Amino acid sequence: MDVRTNADRLVTQVLTGEVWPATADRHAYRVDGDGHPFVLPGMGGVTLAGHLGDPATGWAADHLEPGLSVRHRDPAANFALQYLTCVGNEVTVLSGAAAGGTGVAIGQHAYVLVDADDAVLEATTVGDRVRVVARGQGLLLLDHPDVRVKNLDPAVLAAMPGGTTADGRLAVHVARDVPADAAGAGGGMSSEYANTDLMGAYAGLADDLSLGLESLRIGDLVVLRDTDHSWGRGYRPGWLTIGTISTGQCALFGHGPGPSTLMSGPAEAFTIVEDPDANLGHYVGRPAAQEVPA
Q: Nearest Cα to 121, choosing from 42, 23, 51, 55?
């Protein structure tokens, strides 16, 4: 992206965490928007479904977290991991059969989410330690003071198309334009923590629940209309938020594929460019197929 930033003044910090197990409770069942009970995989552990560019919906899953779900055992350290890890940060597995394998942070949910090559994912297990090279919080767009940037590695920003236009706006390419009606779980939370679930991507449920979002892909850049994520998340007419889809299929009503926040500001600060290829997979240095060290 052709835009001036303060990237040369950012601090890089090394953080650690571990792959967290999938969890459940003794009650087992939840119900979907039509009242059907379900028991489905999704959050936690190592999930071998949903790389960048893959469909976000259509899986037999609930709150699908692609790849590695990472957190820290110490609550305060875990908040730091959530707040400081940015989309595009490099992640390295430190222990277990996949030690030395690398991946990339693609967003936050209940955990920091990491995409990696299948060979790395298949060799990684619950409890394996990971290292995150955290860089990006504090990123400023020097010619766009009304646009607040969150959770974005400056290397990803540099690889994104768009930039400062002749009329002084920020051109951003997005794969989907999302109405404010779709904003579900996540409202009111910090925009550096977890993500916002998008309602209306309920494939196979009642037609009146659909907002036409079933074609979303993991990593798609989206614009959320009339939404302000500057200091939390909420409805604000005339504002826009740019995010990247970091989680997938949800069966629980009021939830859905979720974008992690990247930018937010008044609509007049942006020029939105519809681009079906606007996906994080084109902008991150996700490793090619790797041989996991023996």
A: 51
Q: Which helix (H) or strand (E) holds 77?
A: helix 75-84
| 192 in Cβ contact with 150 (< 8 Å) | yes
Handedness of CA 39, 41, 42, 45 (dihedral sign): positive
Pairing of strands 129-134, 90-93: antiparallel
Rg of the chain over Cα atoms, rounded to whole angstroms, equals 18
- Contact yes or no for 110/65 (Cβ under 8 A): yes
Take residue 104 and report the two structure tokens written for it. Answer: 């990339």
Are 268 and 240 contacting, i.e. CB atoms less than 8 angstroms apart?
no
Which helix (DSSP H) or strand (DSSP E) does residue 221 occupy?
Answer: strand 221-228
Exposure string of 122-137, with b = 16+ CB inside 10 Å and e = fewer, is ebbeeebebebbbbbb
Virtual torsion, Cα 176, 180, 183, 187, nearest 10 deg? 130
Indicate the DSSP class of residue 197.
P
Give residue 291's pLDDT.
Answer: 47
- The gap from C-alpha 180 to its chain's centroid, in whole angstroms, comes to 18
The tens digit of pLDDT for each residue in 131-145 reads 999 999 999 999 999
Tokens of 256: 């859905």
**Do residues 30 and 251 make contact, with C-beta atoms less than 8 angstroms apart?**
yes
pTM of the predicted structure, to 2 decimals = 0.93
List the domains of the chain with CATH numbers. Answer: 7-134 (2.40.10.170), 148-282 (2.102.30.10)
Q: Are 256 and 92 in contact (CB under 8 A)?
A: no
> Which conformational region is residue 6 in: left (phi greater than 0), alpha (psi within -120 to 50 degrees), or beta?
alpha
